[in-house]
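Onboarding guide, step 5: your first structure request.
Type a short instruction followed by the sequence, for example:

Predict the 3D structure of this protein.
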Amino acid sequence: MHELIRDITLCILFAWGLGLAAHFTVQPLILAYLVAGFFIGPYGMGWVKSQESIQIISELGLIFMLFMIGLEIDLKKIVRAGRVILFAAAGQLIGGCVLGVLFFIGIGLSMGGGGFDALYLCIACALSSTVIIVKVLYEKRELDTLPGRITLGVLVLQDIFAILFLAVQPSLADLQVSVILLSIGRVAALVVTALALSRYVLPPLFHQIARRPELILLGALAWCFLIGEIAELLHLSREMGSLVAGVSLSTFPYALDVTAKVTTLRDFFITLFFVALGMTIPIPNSSVIGLALIIAAFTVASRVITTFMPLYFLRQGLRASLLPAINLAQISEFSLVVIQTGVVAGHIKTQTANAASFAFVVLAVLSTFAIGRSDQITRASIRLLKRAGVRDLDHSHPGHDEAGNGHGEGRRILILGFFRAASALLSEIERQNPDLKDQIGVVDFNPVVFQNLAKRGVHVTYGDISNVDTLVHAGVGKAEIIILSVPDSLLKGATNEKLVRHVRSLNETAKIISTADLLADVEDHYAAGADYVVVTRLSDAHELFTVIEAADQGLLEDKRAEIDARLRERGEVLP
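The system replies with structure tokens like these:
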């Protein structure tokens, strides 16, 4: 017992020290935890030697990580997932697995006869890292963009796929239809039990303890371990049970509160899991390093084939097809879980598992940099693809836009970039002055915007507003009013101030209306040539003040009825 406490102490100290180094050198924290585990483990300095300690630390970390992954799976979002996300995820998962099996069998890895190295690697390579992707996209403020939503949708469906694989994984050595059906039946029984309890038993209990944070935390942990033990009784794994426990709570009324309470504990045990995983990685030989590089190269190549191509054929355009492929081009931490379950079950060789772990490390580093610079990579890739003859959404009528207008004809009012403010503006114009819509042109590279505006008869040019050729083609030089409605936080390759200067150089007489995120930016926009600068916080503040006044006067219901009536009238392009 004392040895376990000492081992956990070493894990936390070295994880923290190397975590600090990773933070200051802008490296993934998971990489730091793996290196920490390797350093103190039996293949490094040998300070942690007990295999029992390593196993206990790893299993606890794995249980909590899967519990939190389950909590973050939103079943409602899966149900509401659009056709594009469903087809993209299906193409990526099915295509990735088929290519993976063929590729890894082709390089000589086992498939059957008790060895399933090729199968486990193809599953591992089909999954992408939620931790890395969400962290980087959140920092870049791209979670709410179209490529960001596609990426997150694919990630959620990947998790569901992994759950299904873990359900049949214990029976791989005797994979018969009856065995598969029995495994699925056990999982169904577990899921039904968990959902029923979380729907009818847990809410009244948690309602009674809602004001007691320590009981909320204790209740969440009790639920996690209870479902884990039920899974064990059904001859499933505790890890599988913890995942189902999390999923069953994802639609729970107190899920947000539970997640907030468990997050700190989760981070502690996830750290322990990756440190323990690092302890199991030996010093690599040339064959392990070679296989790891092959796995990494295959993962990147398969993402291009299985993610970019389905999205491109769904007419999402080059940019919205390339970005999710770049975002998803790494191996998931969940892949390491799958690999470890295979090692424990004797389905995969230790050497293959070590190669997968090294491939994860390589891709974690490269992917972090690639996602951070995805805009530059995408722009360069689009140029190369167009030179190679690959068509984008702007190819329909060479020299013409979607509405059939000739090159450079333009419109009197031009909206550069189309997000929610522009969507609301268009709806307001359609309501108050429909004739004005025929004088409006829009420039944007969101395929959803492009298709929906074209259907509504709005003059739209597909293209990047930071590209001078796009602006000239859209008719910036002839427009009388030019509106920049997208905030700087969402612009790629430009800022509103730079766009104002750019547009002013192309059109000296137009009235330019710009958008500023910060009050300090307003004067810079005017100096750049803007005629009017919109600061959304001012209009938001005015609206909130009128709501407060209505509440003070007892008229809040009337105010709400007024806004509800306005919302019912809206027919916006973007929700």
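Each response can be followed by summary notes, for example: Residues 479 and 486 are 18 Å apart (CA to CA).
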